[in-house]
Amino acid sequence: MPVEVTWWGHATCTVQDSGVRVLTDPLFARRLAHLRRRRGELPPPAAARAEAALVSHLHSDHLHLPSLARLAPGTRLIVPRGATRAVPGLRRLTGLRITEVAPGDEVRVEELVVRAVPARHDGRRLPVGPHLSPALGYVIRGAARTYFAGDTGLFDGMAAAVGQVDVALLPVGGWGPFLGPGHLNARRAAQALASLAPRAAVPVHFGTYWPIGLDGVRPHEFHAPGDEFVRHAARLAPGVAVHLLGHGESVRPEVSG
């Protein structure tokens, strides 16, 4: 099969295509500020091995400096334009080859081409101050075309901006009882899936981290989004094969034919 996707939890995946590994939004922490990992073991050291890592936006659960520091020297780190200005700690990761991109930019990673695409999300590091850096999604093109949405809401022209893809990695939940604007829940993710019309999809960004002390507050929002996405996708995008993975599980979607 031309592509293999491994979900490590939250928005962190390894996409292996044409023998090249691309890691998305690396987060290898047991605890992050007020969040703790409630499901799944921490990814093993091998999860940090990749030829390239993609960062979709600057929020600390997507751009996590200690996790990025685990990447091997020489790894290509692709980040939104302005990230090194907005997050000075990136400059201390001297062993990584950092490339800043904006929507439409392409970066070659060995046999693959990574294209940045728009996302509808607040791309700032903190919820205050100027917008110095956009939120992005990425399309990884090799033997297959894999779309990693990062964090995004639905937006006009989404399918046209992303283009034709074979596999979609879509966020379907969050890390708290409520999702603000610029997010997909299970139903909206299924609507996006119907618009994008890939051959296969993997739901991500759910069922991993939860605020400390809120275990009893709407726990449904932690446990249910993956199953709900499968149910909504079956109704709205019945031609798409949806693969609901557990933490650390892999799938080789059928994308040919």
TrEMBL record:
Residues 21-206 form the Metallo-beta-lactamase domain. This is MBL fold metallo-hydrolase. The lineage of its organism: Bacteria, Bacillati, Actinomycetota, Actinomycetes, Kitasatosporales.
